[in-house]
Write a structure and sequence with these properties.
The chain is α+β, with helices and mostly antiparallel strands. Helix content is 37%, strand content 29%. The longest helix has 16 residues, at 106-121. The protein is globular. It binds adenosine-5'-triphosphate. Residues 67-149 form the GHMP kinase N-terminal domain.
Length: 311
C-alpha cells in the first residue's frame, strides 16, 4: 500500500457539562459527542525520503510542529522509530473543509486520521484501543475521532463509551469566518465566572437532563434530543460576544429541533428532522443576515469515524 485517502469527520457536542477542575488543570467533563458528515479530506503518500512533509489549503492551519497531524506522525515515530527507517517518510496533504478553531474538532480529527493512516502504511497493527491511547497524548478529542459515531466522553473527554449511533438527523452549522474562540480561553472564562460553583467531581448538576438525553438518543427521538441539548461553555461565549448571541437567538426561532453552540464555539448548530428543513433554515439565515462572513453548512449526523476511502 503506497497511499491512504481518508475522510476525517468533524464532531458536534450534543452535551457538554463541566463537573469540576482536575489536579492537572484540565476540567472534569461529561459530554455526548456526535460525528457529522462534514469532513476534511486527507491524503498520505510515501514520498521516498525520510521526512514528514505537511501541506494544507487553508492559511489558518499552521504548517509546523504545532499542527496536530504533524504531531501525530512525530508521536508514531517516537514510539516506533524503526518504521520510518524501514518504510520511509510521507507527505500529509490536508484538504481543509472543517472550519478552523470552531469547536468542531477539526485539528483532532486530522490527528486521528494520521494515526490510522500510519498504522496501515507502516504496518504497525495497532488496534482501535491502542490508537485511542496514542490519540490521548495528542489531545482530549482525538480518541473519540478514531471511531466517531455517538459516544459519552468523560474524564478530560478522552474516556469514550459508544452509545446508540445517531445518523437520522440533519444540522445547519453557522460560523463567522473571521471569528474564532480559543478553547483554553473558554475554559478559563468559565472558571472565572463559575469556578466557585464547581462541585466535587462526578456530581452532575444537570444529571436528570443528561439521563433523559441518553434515553432520547436510545430512542432516536429527534424532538427530545433537540430539547435536551446542553453546553456549559455556551454561556461564557454568549455573554462576551453579542454577535454570537444574536445569531443563536435567530437560529432558535427557525423551528428546528434545537439550537446550541458546539464545544468551545463559536459554531452554532440547529438540529433538524430532514435535509429539507435544514435547507429551508439555511436559506432564511442567508437572506436575513446577508453577511458574506457568515459561513453556513448543511450536514448529516454520521455513525462513522475516520473513513479510509481508497487505498
Ligand atoms: P476542539 O473542538 O478539538 O477544541 P476546534 O475545532 O475548536 O478544536 P481546531 O480546528 O482543531 O479547533 O483548531 C484549533 C487550533 O489548532 C487552530 O487555531 C490551529 O492553530 C491549530 N491547529 C493545529 N493543527 C491543526 C489542524 N490540523 N487543523 C486545524 N487547526 C489546527
Amino acid at each position: 500500500m503506497k497511499t491512504c485517502n481518508l475522510l476525517a469527520p468533524a464532531k458536534i457536542n450534543l452535551y457538554l457539562e463541566i463537573l469540576g477542575e482536575r489536579f492537572d488543570n484540565y476540567h472534569e467533563l461529561i459530554m455526548v459527542l456526535q460525528s457529522i458528515e462534514l469532513s476534511d479530506y486527507i491524503k498520505i503518500n510515501f514520498n521516498g525520503t525520510q521526512n514528514i512533509n505537511l501541506y494544507c489549503n487553508n492559511l489558518l492551519v499552521p504548517l509546523n510542529e504545532t499542527n496536530i497531524a504533524y504531531r501525530a506522525a512525530q508521536l508514531i515515530i517516537k514510539k516506533f522509530p524503526n518504521s520510518l527507517n524501514l518504510y520511509g517518510g510521507v507527505d500529509i496533504i490536508i484538504d481543509k473543509r472543517i472550519p478552523v478553531a470552531a469547536g468542531l474538532a477539526g485539528g483532532s480529527t486530522d490527528g486521528a486520521a494520521v494515526l490510522l493512516a500510519l498504522n496501515l502504511l507502516w504496518k504497525l497493527d495497532l488496534n482501535d484501543y491502542e490508537l485511542q491511547k496514542l490519540g490521548e497524548e495528542l489531545g482530549s478529542d482525538v480518541p473519540f475521532c478514531i471511531n466517531g459515531g455517538t459516544a459519552i466522553a468523560t474524564g478530560k473527554g478522552e474516556i469514550i463509551n459508544p452509545i446508540n449511533k445517531l445518523d437520522n438527523l440533519w444540522i445547519v452549522l453557522a460560523k463567522y469566518q473571521n471569528f474564532s474562540i480559543s478553547t483554553p480561553w473558554a475554559y478559563q472564562k468559565h472558571k472565572e465566572q463559575f469556578g466557585k460553583c464547581y462541585e466535587k467531581n462526578d456530581k452532575k448538576k444537570n444529571s436528570n437532563n443528561f439521563e433523559l438525553l441518553i434515553n432520547a438518543i436510545d430512542q432516536k427521538d429527534g424532538q427530545k434530543i433537540g430539547n435536551l441539548l446542553y453546553n456549559d461553555l455556551e454561556k461564557v461565549v454568549l455573554s462576551e460576544h453579542l454577535m454570537i448571541t444574536e445569531l443563536k437567538s435567530f437560529m432558535e426561532k427557525m423551528g428546528g429541533l434545537g439550537t446550541m453552540m458546539s464545544g468551545s464555539g463559536p459554531t452554532i448548530f440547529t438540529l433538524c428532522q430532514s435535509r429539507e428543513q435544514a435547507e429551508e433554515i439555511k436559506n432564511i439565515i442567508v437572506k436575513t443576515f446577508q453577511d458574506p462572513n457568515l459561513e453556513l453548512f448543511i450536514s448529516k449526523l454520521s455513525s462513522n469515524g475516520i473513513n479510509n476511502i481508497k487505498s
